[in-house]
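S1.2 Input.
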Amino acid sequence: MDFIKKYDLQLKIFVIIITILQPFLLILTQGLKESISSYWETPLQPLFIFINATTSYYLFSTPKWRTPSVFLLLLTAFSVTQFKLIHNVFAGCFFLSCLISLLLVKRFIYYGLLLIISIPLLFVFDFLWFEIYATIIIVSYHLHTIIYKQYLDYKREKSNIK
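S1.3 Output.
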């Protein structure tokens, strides 16, 4: 546990990077599928599970993101192949709870608005492209908050030095 505390920032950024890269890696190596969850049926299933589990872990450590964290873990636990309906319900709940979390934040509310804009992608393109766009927005928000927190910490330290 000391390792995680010591390298928490670096681990969070690592998870953000692999979460952004995951769908493109999946598409490049396995071709286009119906959704990100459809890659469960490919040899990259461990990557899908690992990224969702680590993302869920870090979301759970963020108080207003605990509900999306639980839904992400649940959709990962119920494979799209064996439990399609329940998996899809949890996936919908995950994205809806992410939208609610983004709209309830005081800073950077425009990420929630960007996520709302992604909803028509469901009707224009397939679910995969909606998921990729929505994931990039959600992950970008978390990266932005990490950078902003680091900036504030730096300013506080700098003002205490004087």
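S1.4 Remarks. Residues 2-161 form one domain.
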